[in-house]
Structure formats: C-alpha cells, structure tokens
Amino acid sequence: MTCKWTRVALCLVPAACSLVLSGCARPVSANSRFYMLQAPRPVAPAVREGKAVLAVPRCTIDAAYANRGLVYRLDEHRYESDAYNEFLVSPTVMITERTRDWLAQSGLFAQVLGSGSGAEPTHRMEANIAAVYGDFRDKRAPKAVMEIRFFLLRIEGGADPVIVMAKSYAATADVATAGPEGLVAGLDRCLQTILTELERDLAGAV
After folding, report:
1. Are the beta carbons of 155 and 116 closer than 8 angstroms?
2. How are beta strands 60-61 and 33-35 bridged, if at all?
3. Residue 183 belongs to some domain of the structure
4. Which helix (H) or strand (E) covers residue 163, if one does?
5. pTM for the full predicted model
6. Distances in Å between the alpha carbon of 143 and those of 67, 94, 139, 180, 188?
7. Please, is 2 exposed, middle or buried when counting C-beta atoms within 10 Å of its C-beta (0-12, 13-18, 19+)?
8. Most confident segment among 10-24, 59-73, 147-161
C-alpha cells in the first residue's frame, strides 16, 4: 500500500510543478507587439547654464495604468487593457527616463541625476502619472490622453524639503491612424507637450 501511494505522489509532483510554473509564467504570444515612447526634443539641446543639481527618481503611477498593456477607454465607466500590445517596459520607468533625458538637455540644470547617483542634488523632481490611455468613446475621433503631476522640491543644505513648484499637466492628441501604433504616436506627442510646458515653467522656478 505504501509503495502504491508513493508512486501516485511521485506522479503528481511534476504535474503540480507544471501548474505552478504555468500559473506564474507570463505568456508571450507570437502576436504580441511592444512599444516605447520616445518624446524627442523638437529643438537641439541647450547649453547648460543652470547651477542647480536635479534628482529625478522613478515616478509613481495610478493603479489603473500601472501595467504595460495599452489601456483603452471604451465608454464612461468601461476600460480595457490590451494583452497583445504593450509598452516594452513599465510606464513609470519609460516616462521617468524620458523626463530625465529631456531636462538634462534643457540647460536649466548643471546635472540631472538618476535615483542611484551618489552626487548631492539641490532639487528633486517627483512625479505621478495620473492618466495614460486611449479615449475611444468617440470612435470617429479617438484621442490619446496623458496627465502627469510634477513636484519640484528644494532639498539642499540638510533642511526640510521645500516645495518650489507643484503643477498638473494634461495633454491630448488625435489618434491619426487606426491601431495601437496610432495610439502610441499620440501618447508620444502628449508627452512632448507636457515636457515642453514643464521645461518652460521650471525656467522661472530654479
């Protein structure tokens, strides 16, 4: 009897492991497509004239948009996440990197640092992505939608952080072509618009 149950248990172990692994693994379909936002600056990088040193840690994001799948708004309360058309990396990583690159080329700061830098910043830029999706409620005129809240803090001298600037930036762009490619292109234009406005406001704050 013991041998019989031992054989049964040994047969069940591989099956259980297979179920666990298949449940944990993230399937990638042959039809999956991956996208990146680029947000290139429309003008050449500026000469660095600023003296402030800015740290740009990884931003946060509202839970509805935290996954990599493109998000579509279909009606007033219904949203859909696309499992086959995704950002290559999480929106927080991607938008943080684009923001850091943009501000590094703005000329407003002596240095723009990532979260792992050992340099001592004078300011810190915190951000929260409040929206990043395609609005398809009007199927004849779909739009890309993005909203980001930025907080600029002065942190030099060991004193308590002081909020220098706090502002939300929202942008929309027409989805010119059908399909996820059109939505990603629209989101790219939204991010360009937001970063352009952010740079303009920062010029008067640092």
Report:
1. no
2. unpaired
3. yes
4. strand 162-174
5. 0.84
6. 20, 21, 9, 12, 12
7. exposed
8. 59-73
pLDDT in tens, 16-59: 434 333 444 445 566 899 999 999 988 877 777 889 999 999 99
**What is residue 6's predicted lDDT score, i.e. its pLDDT?**
40
- Full residue range of the structural domain in which residue 181 is found: 36-203
State the Cα–Cα distance between residues 37 and 68, nearest whole angstrom. 12
Dist CA 174 CA 92 (whole Å): 23
Q: Phi-psi bin for 204: left (phi > 0), alpha (psi -120 to 50), beta?
A: alpha
Whichever domain contains 96, its CATH number is 3.40.50.10610
- Cα dist from 78 to 65, 71, 73, 74, 135, whole Å: 14, 11, 6, 6, 11
Specify the residue for token string 């952080």. Answer: 161
The DSSP result for 60-99, as a single string, is EE-GGG-SSEEEEE-SSS-EEEEEEEEESS-HHHHHHHHH
The domain total for the chain is 1
Amino acid at 100: R
